[in-house]
Design a protein that fits this description.
The chain is an alpha/beta fold. It has two domains: 3-68; 92-282, Rossmann fold, CATH 3.40.50. It has helices spanning 3-16, 21-36, 40-46, 55-67, 72-76, 100-109, 127-135, 148-160, 202-205, 221-226, 249-257; strands spanning 78-81, 84-87, 116-121, 139-144, 167-170, 182-187, 234-243, 262-269, 275-282. Helix 7 (127-135) links the parallel strand 3 (116-121) and strand 4.
C-alpha cells in the first residue's frame, strides 16, 4: 500500500469518528509525518511511494488513539505556540492560539531592553513564560503551578528554548510564597464553568486535566481568589493580564472594578471577536 492510500483510509476513519473533515484530514497527515520524521513538503512529494516496512502497525495504533478522540498534541507530545514547539502531556493544558493575546499584551507592557520582573500564575506547560522570556531577554520570571508534573514539563520547555536560567519555577497555589512586586503578572487560570462539562468536546472533557479547566459553577472561582492578591504583588502602575472564558467579560470587569487597588484597562478580543484577555492595572 502507498503512504497516500494508508493516510486516505485513516482520514475516513477519523471522519467517521465524528472529527470534523478538515481536522480529520490534517490529523491523518500529521500523524504520518510525525512517525516518518517528514515535513509537509516531503509528504506531498513522496506519499505516492510504498509505505516503509513496519509503518502500518505503528501508524494504525496512533490513528486508533485519535479515533478515540485523544488530542493529537498528546499523541505526538508536541504543540506549537508563538512559533515555538512545546512539550505537552495530559498533565498540562494544550496551548491554544487565543492565549497568544496574553503574550502580546505582556510584551507591550515590557520595554524590549529594560530589566523587568514578571510572574506567570498557573503556568502549565510554561508556554506564556517561555514565549515572553524568549522575546524579552532582560526579563526575569517566576512561574507557578500547583501541579508538580506540570512544573516538570514547564522546566523542560524552558530548557528546550534556552530560557531556563531566567525562569524560576515554584509550586504554590496561586501566589503562595510569591511576594513580588512584579512589573507584569500573566495568567491562564482555570475558567470553564463546571456546569458546562458535558458540552465540551471529548478531546477536552476526557483528556485535558480537569484541575486546569474547571473553576466552580460559573468558572470564576479562581479569578475571585486571584484578584485580591494582585495589588500587593504589582508595582504601582503595573499591569496584570489573564485569560477569560466565553461570556465572562462583563462579570470579570465588575470583579476587577470591585477590587481595591485595581482598575480595568482593556478586554482584548480574539480573531472571532470573542473577549479573551482581561487587562487590569494597579492604581
Amino acid at each position: 500500500m502507498t503512504l497516500h492510500a494508508r493516510v486516505a483510509a485513516a482520514r475516513q476513519r477519523l471522519r467517521d469518528a465524528g472529527i470534523p473533515p478538515d481536522e480529520a484530514d490534517l490529523d491523518a497527515r500529521l500523524l504520518a509525518e510525525h512517525l516518518l520524521g517528514w515535513d509537509a513538503a516531503r509528504f506531498f512529494t513522496d506519499s505516492g511511494d510504498a509505505e516503509p516496512a513496519g509503518f502500518a502497525p505503528r501508524y494504525e495504533a496512533l490513528v486508533a488513539r485519535r479515533e478515540a478522540r485523544e488530542p493529537i498534541a498528546y499523541i505526538t507530545g508536541l504543540q506549537q505556540f508563538w512559533d515555538l514547539s512545546f512539550e505537552v502531556s495530559p498533565a498540562v493544558l494544550i496551548p491554544r492560539p487565543e492565549s497568544e493575546l496574553i503574550v502580546e499584551a505582556a510584551l507591550e507592557a515590557v520595554p524590549a531592553r529594560e530589566p523587568r520582573t514578571i510572574a506567570d500564575i498557573c503556568t502549565g506547560s510554561g508556554c506564556l513564560a517561555v514565549a515572553i522570556a524568549r522575546e524579552r531577554p532582560n526579563a526575569r520570571l517566576v512561574a507557578t503551578d500547583i501541579s508538580d508534573a506540570a512544573l516538570d514539563i514547564a522546566r523542560r520547555n524552558a530548557a528546550r528554548h534556552g530560557v531556563g536560567a531566567r525562569i524560576r519555577l515554584v509550586p504554590p497555589d496561586l501566589f503562595d510564597k510569591v511576594a513580588g512586586p512584579f512589573d507584569v503578572i500573566v495568567s491562564n487560570p482555570p475558567y470553564v464553568p463546571a456546569r458546562d462539562r458535558d458540552t465540551l468536546p471529548p478531546e477536552v472533557r476526557d483528556h485535558e486535566p480537569a484541575a486546569a479547566l474547571f473553576a466552580g459553577d460559573d468558572g470564576l472561582e479562581v479569578v475571585r481568589r486571584m484578584l485580591p492578591q494582585l495589588p500587593p504583588r504589582l508595582k504601582p502602575g503595573a499591569t496584570a493580564m489573564f485569560e477569560i472564558g466565553f461570556g465572562q467579560a462583563d462579570a470579570v470587569e465588575q470583579l476587577i472594578s470591585a477590587t481595591p487597588g485595581l482598575r480595568i484597562v482593556a478586554v482584548r478580543r480574539d480573531l472571532r471577536g470573542i473577549p479573551r484577555t482581561a487587562v487590569a492595572r494597579r492604581t
